[in-house]
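As agreed, record passed on underneath.
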Amino acid sequence: ICCQLSVSDHTPIPTLTRVPDFNPMYVGETVNLKCEVNLSSGWKYQWYKNGIEQQTTKETNSIKLSLSDRGKYQCRAARGEIISTEFSEEIKQDVLGNQPKPLMTQVPDVKMVYTGESVSFECKVQLSSGWRYQWSKDGKQLPNNNISRFNIRHATSLNNGTYECSAMRDKTMYNTSHKIPVPSLKSVTPWLDVFPGESVKLSCAMAGGADWTFSWFKDKQPVLPHPTTSFDVGAATLSISSASASHGGQYSCLGKLKSRPSVTSTSKIPVPSLKSVTPWLDVFPGESVKLSCAMAGGADWTFSWFKDKQPVLPHSTTSFDVGAATLSIRSASASHGGQYSCLGKLKSRPSVTSTSSPELTLSVYGEDLFFLHMLNAKPRVTLMQNPIHNVMHTEESVSFSCHINVSSGWEYLWLKDRTLLPESGKNHTIESVETKNTGSYQCQAKRGRGAVFSSDQSPAVRLDVKGKIL
């Protein structure tokens, strides 16, 4: 016996595969369709698209895709003049003409990232699959490729910049990037040398769409709305209604996509500004005190307070407003004296905490000061008369002065025979005395608004006025 003959009882069905197995694909990409018969050999292949036979007879049909290549593909195999296989199963290939645009998002979606915070960017192509990603910052490629998410932990000022992502499939395929174009700044007004009182309009535009908002700068400082400066919707146009010398300078603009801003600014957390709302920081027992804490660049902050580095908590005499921006002491005592400071936290991102503000020293006078009354610790005022005569004559001049040698911010009250006089100020002068000016004079000091703090009345000075000696 020289040979063995095998006869199959059915016609083979070829297997059709696609590499890469992506659907849809894009114009310019290459797809390889392969037709295989696992039985015997010597096959030639016939290719069909939408039921119409194609010219190629190769086992692998390699197609650089155009829009006309979309359709349903099948194959079958033939050998000799008679034997032909069944048709393979169909593979549908969709071809899209527009290049895909990656969608870039930022978490958290905030304009400003502070040092120490974490921020994450994600890049996605919504259609099809098999994408690999590349990241770049300010045009320079970053090392962690092929992943859809780019993370920054513990941001520093070195992370400032414009971030881009690119999506690609296979080595031979194009990639596509989501980049930020450069805004075009133009003068709507035909001239840029203007006279005081003239109006000026500048426009900022971005090629490729209207989904942008704009920020404006003069000499690198932000331009804000003002009685003479306004913006249209989206700030695409800056209008100066009446120019003055202060409007001169170098103008620039930048654009941000409304739906996906990708310019990240990393800033140091600002230091709180601690101020005394009360004009003086040396107070007497019973006086009220207000301190304020503020953060430059926004109102989205809450504050914590410290005295001598220990937390200040609400108390019967100590309270805070909403967000604790103001610390109020209703009635000061010796225990309130000390070094005060505050720090801020972002409401929306509690992990962002500032350093402490510079300290303010609050002094509360106590009973150890020899010039304070032992019982109520109020300052003592001294009333002085010039000239020092108990008896004066009509038409002579006399002046009284009120002295308090501690702290500041005092206003003065004057009394004659315990009746309040209309005069105010530190001095009370009578240019030409009359007999009706006879009486006992006193003065008193006060300060504060709302909760007024007053000294005791000074010791009385007696003035007797007699008729002029002829």
Summary: The radius of gyration is 43 Å. The CA atoms of residues 312 and 455 lie 29 Å apart.
